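Title: Prediction job returns without error message
Component: structure pipeline
Severity: low
Priority: P3
Assignee: unassigned

Description:
Job completed but the reporter wants confirmation the result is attached to the right record. Sequence as submitted:
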Amino acid sequence: GYLSADLNDPLAMEKMDITDIHHPDDSFDAIICSHVLEHVPEDRKAMRELCRVLRPSGFAILNVPVVAKTTFEDPSIVTPADKQRVYGHFDHVRNYGRDYVDRLVESGFEVGEHYPADFLSGPDVERHGLANRCGGQVFICRKKPRA
């Protein structure tokens, strides 16, 4: 089966707060969360929830734009105009840096970082909109084995 989810989009199959997912542990074989976490004030809580609902044999693609050396966030930046000026988008709450992987690992994931050019030709990278903007990485995550 397939389930689309969103906090605000009426076209989504389920209204879902990514920081409070109303599904049991180990519910999903695959999760695709692309360019969402940079909009979520409590991103680490969201990452932990995604890990919780991912089956041990599953995988998650958790892409964000990586546009800085280190992640920058400032909760005092609240207006859309200030967010646009600082983060480059009116509703982003941070700019992720190379330490994004550390946040995923702290949340319970093993992370593989891949680039579209590793598995697609140049024209296919362009055709699928995966050109090297915002870092271009694809973060494929698996739940760390339970101890």
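Comment from assignee: result matches the submitted record. The chain has a mean pLDDT of 93.
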